[in-house]
Structure formats: C-alpha cells, structure tokens
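Fold this sequence, please.
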Amino acid sequence: MKQLYKKIAIGLLCIGITPIEVFSFDDRLKLPGDINGIEVLVGGGIAHDDTAFLGEKKSTEFSPFFALMTEDFYVDIHKVAYRFHPKEDTILTLIGRQDALPNEEDIPSYLNIKSGESYDVGLMAEKKFGKYSLEAEAMVDVTGTHNGVSLELAMGYNHYSEQSHFEVVLGTRYQDDNRANYLYGVSSKEANSSLKKYEAKGDLAAFLYASYVFEVYNNLGLVLQGSITSLSDTAKQSPRIKNDAKYQEVELFAGLVWQFSVYDKD
C-alpha cells in the first residue's frame, strides 16, 4: 500500500511543481498490451503548438501529464471517457472534454480574445475492420459558453507489435454556427477600429493525426504525436485569424511515459 501511495504522489508532484499547462495525454497513447486492473500514466515531454489566431505566438514548452485508466475507463485533468462494447468489432465511447481558447497575457487588448472555457460531452462510435477503423463523433458544449455542436467523421489505421503502436487518423470536423461564431466571430460589442464585426457560419475543416508509442524498457515508453487541422473558408475570412495563416492549428509532442499498475484484478 505504501508503494501505491508513493507512485500516485510522484504523478501528482509532476503536475504540482510545474507552472505550465498539463498535457491531455489520451488513452490511445498507452503502452502496447492489455490492461488488467487500474493503471497510471505519468510522464512529460516537449509540446509545440502553433495556431492561426491573431495575437497567438508559437509555443514550445515542457508539459507533464498524469492519468488513470482501466480497460474501459480513462481520466486525466482535461478528459474523461468510458467505453462500451456492443459487438467485438464495435466500440461506443462516452466522452467529457474540456475545451478552451488559448489566452496569453501578452495578446493586445484590442483583439478582445475570448477566454471562456467550455466543456463538451458526447459520444464516439468506432467500427473496426482489421487494422482499419471508421470513427464518428458528436460533441456538444454543456456549459452555456456557446452551446455549439461539433461532428467528426474519420478513417483510422492501427499497427500493433509487442513493443510498439502506430496510429494515423484522417478525418473531417464540422462545427455549427454557434461554435464557429464563438471561435471566429466578432460581435458588435467586441468590434472596434482594429477588429471588424464578423458573423461566422458553420465551419468544415480536415484534420490529420498520427502517433507512435514504443516501449523502451520495463514500462517506460517513447511517445511521438502530431496533428494538423486545415483552415476553412469561414476561418480565413475572420478578422481573428492571421492573414498569412496556412493551417488552423499544428500540434507536436515528444516525450516519455511511465505506465504502471496500482491494482491488478488477478
């Protein structure tokens, strides 16, 4: 029992002593192999983020992470998820996920950057075809921040070995008028001489996600992750977006994960 408390304390310490944002790790980045009980993911790495929003700067910084998971349950500081298996090749996942616009202190005040945090709740359905999969996801803001809806449809490919897992996902994401207008719109109250009024309509963008996990030694793994999201016409026309922006967002992450069991069912 003392060892259990010690391991959990180490994970919490990684969060507590680091004055930067905690990385949402996602259970798809766990080490290869089955989970039999309750396991912990703890570690950190270098995260790079570049968004198209005017006033936002590229950031490259160390980000820690800490998560708990079972075979069907996952939770970290930004996300909680639970899986159901109606069929062997079909997975339904209930998801709760924090969503927030980036907000840096050095952004000029005239840009009126929105900083309200929202929380999305929804469902993802996944159908497997061997190494390939078809994914559909629907999420809605339940905080009243914008009450927007997000829909995704994607194709994925997974390759597993005893020591590694490689995944790539290509898909498209639709955001309704409420969500798009919150992200890209400028209301009459927000508009000024430097920020023109703009009402954004529904937004459709493509995205590509890839990850690679390799178990280096004894539950210690190397993690590489990257994603890129296209810039839709709705976003391009927004006064909140940089004129020379080519993508809505580019995210990269490289780090180490330590995965260990705190409870074994056997």
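Confidence is low (pLDDT under 50) at residues 4-20. The longest strand covers residues 247-264.
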